[in-house]
Amino acid sequence: MESVLDFSKDLDVDKLDIVVKTFYQGVGPQQQLAQQILTQFQESPEAWLKVDAILDKSKYSHTKFIALQILEKLIQTRWKILPQEQQIGIRNFIVNIIVATSDNEQSLRKEKTYLNKLNLILVQILKQEWPHNWPQFIPEIVSTGRSNLNICENNMAILKLLSEEIFDYSAEQMTQTKTKNLKTQMCHEFSKIFELCNEVLEKAHQPSLIKATLDTLLRFLNWIPLGYIFETNVIENLRNRFVESPEYRNVTLKCLTEIGALSVSHEYDEKFIALFNMVVSSLTTMIPLSANIATIYNNSSNEDQELIQNLALFLTSFLSAHLKVHSSASVLLWRVENEYHYISITGLFS
């Protein structure tokens, strides 16, 4: 087994698979030896040079994940000292694997966990390279998304991860200057991303693609310019196509909750009033006006319980943000209390 530690020769990936299998499935001294060999392999400064061979030839998923861990460590700790040619080579290699793995529905589903890890690796590279050394990334991901529905679905997952890394987790991982630059670039290029998302929400019929796009849109809503929300048809698409559909209504309500919770200038007051009325009108088709919410909640499936929770969150978030500032606040509150007894929903969580 020790032969895999000879980095002067081409790696025998089949032997490495055996070492990894022995570590995960073996017992006693053989397992301990496999652990020692794997530790030495991963700690070698030359291990990353074998990652491409492992990902190309390994037949064992755990071996591939070890290779990706090695690559992730390289990106996080030594990326800046690599020659640009090697950086571009790694970048292109990961992109090609992602495209090959996501371009048909069978591998997209079967290799989901592997693909998720590849996506994370790509986002780590983007945090190092984009936009200065990879200015065409956004146009490229939008273009490939339009070429293949399965690739588009995975590209949505990549964009979601990128948004989370920049806007949600950046304080722990990047300098303020780097974070600011990435946020500025993301906002600057968002029109291309939005066009793709809106095309999917308007025209797509593949459930998994629609769900991935709604999940991605949800991550965008707390930072994108308000014009994309209130001066386009995105809210109408959410309402007309998805909010009443059992398959999409929970994530759609989460999107509408993010929108409804925004505190902005009075310029959009009428838009918020229209949003509230639109959502409440849709909700009456999902839960009867005469329904006992607590009884329904206690006897519902997990998905339907989540729906009721999301309804409560929409109402409480919206009214908390707008009840005191809107001239029509009293009308909103009357509608909630009298036309539709959703105030009782919030009692489930008090």
Automatic annotation (TrEMBL):
One of its GO terms (molecular function) is small GTPase binding. GO terms for cellular component: cytoplasm; nucleus. GO terms for biological process: protein export from nucleus; ribosomal large subunit export from nucleus; ribosomal small subunit export from nucleus. InterPro entries: ARM-like, ARM-type_fold, Exportin-1/Importin-b-like, Importin-beta_N, XPO1/5. Residues 34-100 form the Importin N-terminal domain. Transmembrane segments: none annotated. Belongs to the exportin family. This is Importin N-terminal domain-containing protein. It comes from Diversispora epigaea. The lineage of its organism: Eukaryota, Fungi, Fungi incertae sedis, Mucoromycota, Glomeromycotina.
